[in-house]
Predict the structure of Alpha/beta-type small acid-soluble spore protein.
Amino acid sequence: MSRSRKPVNPQAQKALDQLKVETAAELGLQNYQNTYKGALTSADNGRVGGHMVRKMIESQENKLGGSAGSFGQSGQQGKTTQTLTSKNNIGS
């Protein structure tokens, strides 16, 4: 079965785009909406997606009455401001 890039609920696309921009800003990626994603590292793009998923899971847990963070969150949300490649830059 092939993966589809279409959201299950097409009306949710605008909200997902807004969540992506907000998450990128929290991670220190400014002007993410207008940035060519190919110019960013895969670590940065993956970090945005990973944090989006974490936020969506937290939101659902809260709606269901569960406590977010009960699965051992490390508490590092929003603290990453460098890319992995910039932290491990061999040339500097």
